[in-house]
Design brief:
By secondary structure, the protein is an alpha/beta fold. The protein has two domains: 2-206, Spore Coat Polysaccharide Biosynthesis Protein SpsA, Chain A, CATH 3.90.550.10; 223-323, no CATH class. Helix content is 50%, strand content 16%. It has eleven helices and eight strands. It has helices at 15-27, 46-56, 71-81, 100-111, 128-145, 161-168, 177-184, 207-219, 224-253, 260-293, 311-314; strands spanning 2-8, 33-39, 60-65, 86-89, 115-122, 153-160, 188-194, 300-303. Strand 2, helix 2 and strand 3 (60-65) form a beta-alpha-beta unit. The two termini are 29 Å apart. The structure holds uridine-5'-diphosphate and magnesium ion. Magnesium ion is lined by residues 91, 93, 95, 198, 203.
């Protein structure tokens, strides 16, 4: 059986289009399936639209989070509850064409791999800014994490039950699945697709969220004050380099008191390096701090599969704690 996990945040305008397009694809796969729509605390008509759709589409299952938890947490909630032997995650805005699911499933079965990444071979419909920042982001992340996340692979992917179980067993904090999954190192394959235009509505990923995703990818939690020291150190480093050049120039021009050059360079350089080191140390202390807090990434309010159970009783089922 296949589970199709779809995070949705205020997607009322795209929902009818999405359902209309996904249903024939899912029905035509030739396998049993469930569509797990994760309503990420939407404040528009998304929950109503989902309930309406459920009347005519029994395979549609609805999870609702109590509050907006973010794209990654919403996917995590879906993964924690999905029942399929294979699980596909895709966005609701039709940027990831559902037709590719058939191809992913075929590749997974024929090549016996655990993960099939959807690779955005053609992103011409994304803005140049989005493409540029994304490219930088993936390059930096591959450097930093030492993983080999396929470049241009987003959150459109198929995973085996073993992969999903491995992810579910990981601690929750700001885990960014597109790097967590490659880091597992399970056998994988890729399927190319063309990134399409958002079918309706607007992006739920403003620049601030994109930045946060990037920072989470590197650090696993927001520790702005500690990070500040890191950035200050980097800035200081650049400043020291400028000073170095200036000091060397001044010395060559012969207009300095002896010893001034080296003093300035050393003071500025050491200050920068110390702040940088402190910042890096802070990142690790911060991770321990976050782990000790064991804050759940999301709170599940409702699962249509157990709709007869009062919501209050199931509210803590989705709140996982770090082990
Ligand atoms: N999304 C979500 N919670 C959020 C933000 C986004 O569940 O806080 C969902 C959104 O509904 C969509 C997917 O995540 O299905 C990707 O968001 P979007 O298409 O807005 O991002 P973009 O493609 O612009 O990066
Ligand atoms: Mg999108």
């Amino acid at each position: 059986m296949l589970s199709i996990v779809v995070p949705m945040f205020n997607e009322e305008s795209v929902l009818p289009l999405f359902i209309e397009r996904l249903r024939p694809v899912a029905d035509g796969l030739g396998v049993g399936y469930e569509v797990v729509a994760v309503d990420d605390g939407s404040s528009d008509g998304t929950p109503v639209g989902l309930q309406r759709a459920r009347r005519t589409w029994p395979q549609l299952r609805v999870l609702r989070l109590r509050a907006n938890a973010g794209h990654q947490a919403a996917i995590s909630a879906g993964l924690a509850r999905a029942l399929g032997d294979y699980v596909v995650t895709l966005d609701a805005d039709l940027q990831d064409p559902p037709e590719v699911i058939a191809e992913m499933l075929r590749v997974a079965r024929e090549q016996h791999v655990d993960v099939v990444y959807g690779v955005r071979a053609d992103r011409s419909t994304d803005t140049a800014f989005k493409r540029g920042t994304a490219r930088l982001f993936y390059r930096a992340m591959n450097r930093l994490s030492g993983t080999t996340a396929p470049p241009e692979a987003g959150d459109y992917r198929l995973m085996s039950r073993a992969t999903v179980a491995a992810i579910n067993a990981l601690p929750e904090y700001g885990r960014v699945l597109r790097f967590v999954v490659p880091a597992l190192g399970f056998p994988s394959a890729t399927v190319d697709y063309r990134r399409e235009e958002r079918a309706a509505g607007s992006s739920k990923y403003p620049l601030a969220k994109m930045l946060r995703l990037s920072v989470d990818s590197v650090t696993a939690f927001s520790l702005a004050p500690l990070r500040f020291a890191t950035y200050l150190g980097l800035l200081g480093g650049v400043f020291a380099l400028g000073l170095l050049l200036f000091a060397l120039y001044a010395r060559a021009a012969g207009e300095v008191v002896a010893g001034w050059t080296s003093t300035v360079v050393i003071v500025a350089g050491m200050g920068a390096v110390q702040l940088l080191a402190l910042g890096v140390l802070g990142e690790y202390v911060g991770r321990l701090y976050a782990a000790a807090q064991a804050r759940p990434a999301y709170h599940l309010a409702y699962d249509s599969l157990e709709a007869d159970t009062p919501a209050a009783q199931t509210s803590d089922l989705g709140s996982r704690r770090a082990s």
